[in-house]
Amino acid sequence: MTDSVTQLIPQTNAKFSTVAAVNELGMITHVYWPDINNQVAIYGQSNAISRCQPGDEVLLQHTSSGFIVSAVLIKQNQVPAADIRDNNGHIELTAQQSITLKTAKGTIEVDAQGSITLEGQEINAHSKQDFNLAGWPIRLN
Prior knowledge:
six-stranded mixed sheet, three-stranded antiparallel sheet, CATH 2.40.50, mainly beta
């Protein structure tokens, strides 16, 4: 995508719409455009939008380049996303219950009680200086 959005078309403004289709990555490809009661292709979506699924409600804007999705509305029973902050290059994630980083073969979880769980095929720790491990008792194997 080498184009850039240069202006919003004022007479159409933003509209609420429903996701009609997504690709294998969960990126929105088509939405239902309320004015014509039909599906329209999406030019792009905001980088802040996570994986979507058909039926999600979104905020849609018509631009001179095409339709863009600028926001996804949360469902009534859904909790808002974690608080993510960039403090001059230091990214901080804050959640009330827990945070989990997960891949096919590994997990790091931090919960509200301060418990940190590491699970994986292999866990490595390297240090060029002292390596400190504190706690009582420390159990190996």
